[in-house]
TrEMBL record:
The keyword Signal applies. InterPro entries: Invertase/methylesterase_inhib, Pectinesterase_inhib_dom, PME_Inhibitor. Residues 1-24 form the signal peptide. This is Pectinesterase inhibitor domain-containing protein. One of its GO terms (molecular function) is enzyme inhibitor activity. PANTHER family: PECTINESTERASE INHIBITOR-LIKE (PTHR31080), PLANT INVERTASE_PECTIN METHYLESTERASE INHIBITOR (PTHR31080:SF12). Keywords: Signal. Residues 27-190 form the Pectinesterase inhibitor domain.
Length: 207
């Protein structure tokens, strides 16, 4: 009888723990989906943020914007590494025309990495050095994210005519820049959501 009761207790506790986990994950997903409603790519936004929210709990709009920017920066860095590999391969063929065709994208991804890095550092400072500096930080972040977004878009639109490199590599470069562009766009949405809420809570007028 005692053994039966203990088995029932163990099963009941297991079911309770599982239901708590499911409820917690469901709450995290609902929260993330709500935060991502303003993003142009809401599914990617939720995919980016959910692992952090599910692990640590409901995060502030500022932290969500930081996570979004950090994810964008990571993708931009990987794109930079891949693009440099392609350039190295083109250099080995000693075909200067091929190199020049991709040179603009090399500069754009380098600029993008720098701009997103600056944006992330600036976002970290927002709210720490007084409300009087908030709009100055805000303007900087908006300018840098927008510039990174423009760079990625330009490369997608202009990249590589037929025959410059293989279609497979062309498709991979476009896909990587598209991912950076989408993450930058979502980061901009998360940042705007944070700034609107912060200004409202502090009574700071819109710029």
């Amino acid at each position: 009888m005692a053994r039966t009761f203990l088995s029932f207790l163990v099963i009941s506790l297991t079911i309770f723990q599982l239901s708590t986990i499911v409820e917690s994950r469901s709450r995290a997903r609902m929260y993330v989906e709500l935060q991502c409603r303003s993003a142009i790519y809401p599914e990617l936004c939720a995919q980016t943020l959910l692992p952090y929210v599910a692990k640590t709990g409901l995060l502030s709009p500022q932290l969500l914007a930081q996570i979004s920017l950090a994810s964008c920066l990571s993708k931009a860095r990987y794109t930079k590494i891949y693009l440099n590999m392609v350039v190295k391969k083109l250099n080995e063929t000693k075909n200067s025309a091929n190199y020049l065709a991709i040179d603009d994208c090399v500069h754009q991804i380098n600029d993008g990495v720098n701009q997103i890095t600056q944006s992330y550092k600036e976002l970290e400072q927002m709210g720490k050095d007084g409300d009087e500096n908030f709009m100055w930080h805000e303007s900087n972040v908006l300018s840098w994210i927008s510039a990174a977004l423009t760079d990625a878009t330009t490369c997608i639109e202009e990249i590589l005519g037929d025959g410059i490199i293989s279609r497979r590599e062309q498709a991979m470069i476009r896909a990587r820049f598209l991912n950076v562009k989408q993450l930058a766009s979502n980061s901009l949405a998360m940042f705007n959501r944070f700034t609107v809420r912060y200004r409202a809570s502090r009574g700071i007028k819109n710029p």
